[in-house]
Amino acid sequence: MKTTFYGKKISGIVTLLPETEYTFEDDMKYNNLSEKQNRKLQKTMGYDRHRFFKPDTYLSKVAIYGLKLMFEKKLLIKDDISAIVVSTSTPDYLMPATSNLIMSELDLDNSVFCMDTNQQCAGFVNGLLQAFMLLNNDNMKKVVLITGDVMVRNPDRSNTSGYPLSGDAICITIVENCDKKLPIYYHSIVDAKSYDALVFPGLGFREITPEDKIRFSSEKYSFNNNLNSIHMDGQAVFQYVMQDVPKYINETLELAQTNKDDLDYYFFHQPNKFMVDKLAQKIEVSENKVPSNVVTFYGNSSSSTIPVCICHNVKDTILKNNYRSMLAGFGAGLSYSGIVMNLGEFDFCEMIVTNF
Fold first, then answer.
1. Which of 237, 235, 213 lies closest to 226, judged by CA?
2. Which of 62, 136, 265, 303 is most enclosed, with most CB atoms within 10 A?
3. Which residues pair with 353 in a beta bridge?
């Protein structure tokens, strides 16, 4: 899918982080790897620390806290909200939508449009797509895009496959119309035949057969026999990011009629430092333009890694400056979604550590 929007902007981002933080140094005590193996893993993948919400924390609880704080700080006026879009893989309930729960708690007007979407790694970019489409309608003021998960409950610190890269963060992004009619280019690809490279087999309504149990606990998924957790074929995901994603990035640049060197920043989804750095090399872009430090400080927060990346790296300068940027999410699906747009002159860009 390729499309173009005009006259839209991101006016601010608030990143909400858990207070519980684990360092890789401390995590090393819980696994069976030697110190040399741990240090190699740390250096290659960029692990240093990550944060997790408490077991009794749920998405709407954090989002409501964040929005009320924004009301108090005059970052957002309640009556300016025309829509709430929630991008998450961990909704409060299967029914109703988590966006409805947030709307109810904030006592918003019943004309506010609410929707949830489950897009994982591309959740932020596809959430922006939904926001842009909503803003094309008459009388729309601001769309609140909420991204993030509460995926890790009581983490298994001995798991050297998925645990070191995991992390929680919930982001609130405000999207609205603007007078500047600058184009925003959106491009997405879904390679659905490879869906099982990243899969969460448990907790759905599809019956897990004995054959499925054998398949999902195979070497392909690091012998992971817990169906209520993410199963990743690491080699398949890495090959996808190295072989297919660079092609899709170039197609997005072609759509935008933009030379890759003309962009100021590439804010990519952050599976780990190694993969993002390798992707920068593949597309032949300076690593200075491709921040890869999110997992180092916060872990991989799925649909929130891009706004976390923006907040961590340019939260001070983006208030005054304007950056021609690419935002790209890739992974689960397997899918890719990319946007080329101007980012800047934000009203706010904050990172807040919560007590959740």
1. 213
2. 303
3. 17
Domain 2-182 and domain 184-344, same fold? Reply is yes
| Cα gap 324→184, rounded to integer Å | 10
100 close to 110: Cβ distance less than 8 angstroms: no
Cβ proximity of 347 and 77 under 8 Å: no
CA dist 332 and 57 (Å) reads 24
Please state, in angstroms and rounded to a whole number, the distance separating the CA atoms of residues 38 and 44: 10
With tokens 């593949």, the residue in question is 282
Is the pTM higher than 0.85? The answer reads: yes
3-state secondary structure at position 261: helix
State whether the Cα torsion 245-246-247-250 is positive or negative.
positive
CA distance 40 to 292: 18
CATH 3.40.47.10 fits 184-344, yes or no: yes
Q: Which residues contact 22 (CB under 8 A, 6 or more apart)?
A: 49, 50, 51, 52, 155, 157
Q: Which class does domain 2-182 fall in?
A: alpha beta
Mapped to the 3 state alphabet, what secondary structure does 20-54 carry?
EEEEHHHHHHHCCCCHHHHHHHHHHHCCCEEEECC
Reading the chain (356 residues) residue by residue, the pLDDT tens digits are 999 999 999 999 999 999 999 999 988 888 888 889 989 888 888 899 999 999 999 999 999 999 999 999 999 999 999 999 999 999 999 999 999 999 999 999 999 999 999 988 899 999 999 999 999 999 999 999 999 999 877 777 887 777 888 899 999 999 999 999 999 999 999 998 887 777 777 777 888 888 878 777 777 777 777 777 677 777 888 889 999 999 999 999 999 999 999 999 999 999 899 999 999 999 999 999 999 999 999 999 999 999 999 999 999 999 999 999 999 999 888 899 999 999 999 999 999 999 99
* Pick from 69, 15, 53: nearest CA to 314: 15
Dist CA 176 CA 355 (whole Å): 30
